[in-house]
Amino acid sequence: MRDHTKLRAFELADNLALTVYKATGGFPREEMFGLTSQLRRAVVSIASNIVEGCARFSEAEYVHFLDMAYGSAREAEYQISLAHRLGFLPEDAHDDLANRSAETCKVLNGLLRALRKQ
């Protein structure tokens, strides 16, 4: 079994989730079950899928869960952009979240590419 806490991808995803939770606390009340919930679920899904993949025994299952984590990371990138364009995220918060999500995607993609070469 792999240790997810030793993966840079997990560290980035976990920090992204914490940052998104803080940033979405100020979203409009009417978005509680809309974009707020959707964005929070997407970022939690990134870290959760990394953890679940690490708990799997086969390499194929591990890659499958990392693929799902990557999909959730790309979903979060879009939702962060949308929240900014709707005026829910100020420029500085958007830039921070956008940079964090881009870095998470980059590291996950690199990990996936390395695993697929093996």
What order do the helices and strands come in, and which of them pair?
Blueprint: H1 8-24, H2 35-55, H3 59-85, H4 91-117
What does this protein structure show overall?
The protein has 4 helices and no strands. The chain is an all-alpha fold and 118 residues long. It has a single domain, classed as 23S rRNA-intervening sequence (de novo design (two linked rop proteins), Up-down Bundle), CATH 1.20.1440.60. Helix 2 packs antiparallel against helix 3. The two termini are 18 Å apart.
List keywords for this structure.
118 residues, mainly alpha, de novo design (two linked rop proteins), elongated
Taken in chain order, the helices and strands follow as HHHH
Percent of residues in helices: over 70%
Separate helix tally: 4
Estimate nothing, just give the exact number of structural domains. 1
**How does the major sheet shape up?**
none
Q: What is the gist of this entry?
A:
The chain has 118 residues and is mainly alpha-helical. The protein is built from 4 helices and no strands.
